[in-house]
Amino acid sequence: MTEIRHLYLSFDGKVIFNDFSLNIKRGEKVAVIGESGKGKTTLLNILSGFTTDYKGRVYVFNKELNPENINEIRKDIAWLSQDTSTKERNVEELFFRPFSFAVNKHKKPSEKEIKAVFSTLHLDYSLMNKRVKNISGGQKQRILLASCLLLKKPLLLADEPTSALDEQVKRDITDFVLSQKELTVIAATHDDYWIRKSDKVIELK
Amino acid sequence: MENVIDINYFELFTGYALMLIPVFVLWYYKTGLVKDTLIATVRMTIQLLLVGVYLEYIFKLNSITVNILWVVIMSIIASYTIIIRSGLRFKLFFIPVVLSGLISIAVTDAYFLGFVVKLENVFDARYFIPVTGMLLGNTLKNVVIALDAFYKRIDEEENYYHQYLANGATKKEALQPFMRDALRLAFNPMIATTAVMGLISLPGMMTGQILGGSNPNVAVKYQIMLLITIFSSAVLNAVLTITLSNRFAFDGFENLRKDIFRKQ
């Protein structure tokens, strides 16, 4: 269970969350919607421990979010940011970066596994040999998503995961990601198809 | 030693006429740097003249305690400059910066003076103070660049740092690309200068020694050793400063503390 209890948060005097609570079951697919500036990204940042100046309690898979547990919690998360700018120069380096971390080393996927996920995400495996600056924003977003999915973490936090994609690709990717039974997905999104396909929709006002 | 032509104070004063060139250029292009240039020149002159007087006295005294104290004071001043130039908060960074400076000096000084020059007393004022002074002066710029680049980039490119952490990286793993960039930025120019040393530039210490009447061969050997010592000390100092300071610069959730930067 991932849970937020009586969350209160304000920025520069503007209240973002006022007594906000939330329950998410394991494997549930949750779409977080709302206008820009209503706190969608902030909610993902709270769940991953990047925004911490709130009042209230947050639990991720029954572990309370605090400095003692943060490393354990982050081991269970795959994170897809809306900002796809990267420090890596080559696509291969970008894709494999998370697998270079000690906690993920044993999860390094085989070429066959990568090719299978790439194909589902409408990606050509030959992209691996390209420079990051020579691929499109949509391709970069899908490569990062492929990397996140192959990490096989129980929780995917995604910020606008389909924002840079074409309509058909969007649908295929949404179907694929939301069909992963064991995976809990919390996505901040404006995408109608993703919202329709999610188990639960949380609107931030 | 050959006779060295001394510069008398009048000649020294006429030498300042060369400063008219930079002052005119900086004034003409409205850089706003004329006042700073003049202040820096006056400060440099007063400081060096005073140091000349101090050093003469300290060399005569040659007390281990006084020599060490002198180096500690130089380190504290260097640390202050590093922190201020990096735009970081003095209170948080003072101890790690001073400590890193002292450790890197201790290691490289001990090796160079004790093992290479084989001094009986490594704290001999004639060697210990000028060598340490050169180390501090020459490593300062690199440490400022490394420290500044490291923390400013984490702040500006927080997204990358978060992306790494949230995908399972430890703090050390997530900081590794920032450390790499900071070191590249700080040491690329030094590597380039080292590579062309002697071809397009004659280092100041060697030139000074030759002008001071030393045999060029001896001057060259000292210069080579000093360049190696400076390089090694600068890299050690930069890495230690970043490693020691990052224990204080992040909160319990491993996020960069926003209060590490000095308010401009």
Molecular structure report:
In chain A, the strands form two sheets. In chain A, strands 6-7-8-3-9 form a five-stranded parallel sheet, with helices on both faces. Chain A is globular. Chain A has seven helices and nine strands, in the order βββαββαβαααβαβαβ. In chain A, helix 4 (111-120) packs across helix 5. Chain A is α/β, with parallel strands linked by helices. Chain A has helices at residues 40-47, 70-75, 91-96, 111-120, 137-150, 167-178, 192-197; strands spanning 2-11, 14-24, 29-33, 55-60, 63-64, 77-80, 155-159, 184-188, 200-203. In chain A, strand 7 (155-159), helix 6 and strand 8 form a beta-alpha-beta unit. Chain B is mainly α. Chain B has two domains: 1-61, no CATH class; 70-260, no CATH class. Chain B has ten helices and no strands. In chain B, helix 4 (64-85) packs parallel to helix 6 and helix 6 (125-156) packs across helix 7. Chain B starts with 8 loop residues before the first helix and ends in a 19-residue tail after the last helix. Classes of the chains: A alpha/beta (205), B mainly alpha (264). The A-B interface holds A 45, 48-50, 52, 66-67, 70-71, 74-75, 77-79, 81, 83, 85-87, 97-98, 100-104, 148, 151, 153, 157 and B 157, 159-160, 162-170, 173, 177, 181, 251-255.
